[in-house]
Write a structure and sequence with these properties.
By secondary structure, this protein is an all-alpha fold. 60% of the residues lie in helices and 0% in strands. The protein has two helices and no strands. The longest helix is centred in the first third of the chain and has 29 residues, at 7-35. The chain is elongated, with a radius of gyration of 27 Å. It starts with 6 loop residues before the first helix and ends in an 11-residue tail after the last helix. The relative contact order is 0.06.
Length: 65
Amino acid sequence: MLKNLSTNNKLELISKLTQSLKSNMDKGKSNFYKAYGAWDSNESADELISSIRSSRTFNRNIEEF
């Protein structure tokens, strides 16, 4: 399929593919930085850990068949 394209069309295709790859890479970087610092809380790390541990529930009831 590419064999039938002219040289100019091949170069244009390469250019468009390169631009699309660059735009995808830029989007990935910006999404990473948007996620940075997303947790907003006034609790310290120790307070957060203790609240997570205290909210855990365990159900060890074995159901009969």
